[in-house]
Amino acid sequence: MRSKEIKAKRYMQRKRRVRAKVVGSAKRPRLSVFRSNTHIYGQIINDEEGKTLLSFSDIKIKKVAKVTKTMVAGQVGEELAKKALAKKIKAVVFDRNGFMYHGRVKALAEGARKGGLVF
Q1: DSSP at 43
Q2: Other CB atoms within 10 A of residue 15 CB
Q3: Gap between the Cα atoms of 33 and 44, Å rounded
Q4: Which of 9, 54, 58, 76 is the most exposed place for a label (fewest CB within 10 A)?
Q5: Do the beta carbons of residue 54 and residue 87 sit within 8 Å?
Q6: pTM for the full model?
Q7: Of the candidates 18, 68, 27, which has an alpha carbon nearest to the alpha carbon of residue 46?
Q8: Under a CB-based contact definition with an 8 Å cutoff, are residues 107 and 70 in contact?
Q9: Residue 107 CB: number of other CB atoms within 10 A?
Q10: Pairing of the two strands 51-57 and 40-46
């Protein structure tokens, strides 16, 4: 196997392992994070109905001057929390989606906590 295939296979194994333990409900939906090389996305999902309640990404944020991707991820978390509180969602379950809880994923989680979400 080539290294890209191995990396993708390991990522999918981690993702399945995390998702086996993390399930969102109507009372505590799941906050799922996806990180690409250039962008970061956050979704709040009700797994009982299989519906995305709301989502937000850094594509919608106006970037000014020099900001790091980690700083932008924190802003995404805060905006996602604002939108969630507007929909009366206060508690969520965090799904890191197979990514390490480090860097941009951690910044998004801390931004969501700072915005008022509980997890």
Answers
A1: E
A2: 15
A3: 9
A4: 9
A5: yes
A6: 0.90
A7: 27
A8: yes
A9: 21
A10: antiparallel
- Give me the domains of the chain, ranges plus CATH numbers: 3-115 (3.30.420.100)
Tens of each residue's pLDDT in the chain, 119 residues: 799 999 999 999 999 999 999 998 889 999 999 999 999 999 999 999 999 999 999 998 887 788 999 999 999 999 999 999 999 999 999 999 999 999 999 999 999 999 999 99
Neighbours of 111 (CB within 10 A): 22
SS3 54: strand
**Helices then strands, each counted (H, E), the chain:** 3, 4
> Any alpha helices (H) in the chain, and if so which ranges?
3-21, 69-86, 104-115
Task: Report, in angstroms and rounded to the nearest whole number, the Rg of the chain calculated over CA atoms.
Answer: 15
